[in-house]
Amino acid sequence: MLTRTTDTYTADNTQITMETCNHSSSSQNISQFAHLNAAGYEHPQQTFESTSIDEAANMADKEAPDHFQNAIRKTTLLDIQQKRGLPEAMSLLSTVTKDIERRVNILLSQHEDDFFSAFRSHALNVQRHIEKLQECANAQKNLMTRDLKIKTLQQELQWFVEESVRLDQICKRLKGDLIGWQARTAALREDRDFLEKELKETRRKLRRAELNDHNMSAKRMQNQGEELSTCLRSEHSKTLHDTVDSLKRQIANLTATIHRLQNDARRNSRRGSSLVEASKALGRRQHLERFLVECINDVKKERKLKGIPTASLGEFEHLSVEEFLAFDRRKVLNALLSNDNVLRKLYCLIFPHKGTVE
């Protein structure tokens, strides 16, 4: 009985298929084959064996690599064709199989080396590509950081422009207020000069009136003395006494008039000095008021820079208790107490008997 088997080997993407015939028969079949051979009958095994060997040779020629194709064609296949015996063919095939396995292992090792070298080059290429991508990512990150910095600087520039415009408006408003206060100061100075002139004129008039009164009283006394001497010579002693009494009364009246005029002069002098002091006090008060307004405006500026809503500058008197807090009041008090004029005024108000502090 003949059994057909197929052996397949793989080497470098090439398949070599060999068909062998296994002889399994009883001793009776062997004897029948021997008689047929003796009769000159061609054994089917030999035909099949030769056919299988030819096919294997053709496939080896087509599919085997060049570096061991000639060896198979020249040695192995020729030996198989020459030796028609099955055991010899089997041994030869096993030898060829081992040789093919060795060659396949060699090819596999070569392919493995080629694969590792290709993998190494590919890994290097991938690493270079990753480095390029990392450089691109770093460049993009730097661009984003630069754009963010530019945007931040633009926002800061816009804020500084707005603050400069706001401060310019505040300066213009303060300049207008300064012009108004300067006009008021000039008016007060004119009033003070006018009052000083009036006071000096009043003093001159009082002195002139006093001199006139003295001259008139002297003339009257002289005239009255002459009249008295005349009366003493001509009239009676009683008339003389009456005249003396009338003269005394006139002298008393003139003396009272002189005292009254002197009191009026002193009163006018005190009034003029009080007016001068009032003008000076008004100037000091206006100066202190301006300083208070500046302190409050400074506190409000600080609050506005910190983002706390406040009333408009110059309208601090309309601030409510909720807007002007205790912390802001303490700031205003600290700023006020840092001024020497304020301290001097407070000292004079608290200790009036000690006079003015230098």
TrEMBL record:
<keyword id="KW-0175">Coiled coil</keyword>
<protein>
    <submittedName>
        <fullName>Myosin heavy</fullName>
    </submittedName>
</protein>
<feature type="coiled-coil region">
    <location>
        <begin position="185"/>
        <end position="212"/>
    </location>
</feature>
<feature type="coiled-coil region">
    <location>
        <begin position="244"/>
        <end position="271"/>
    </location>
</feature>
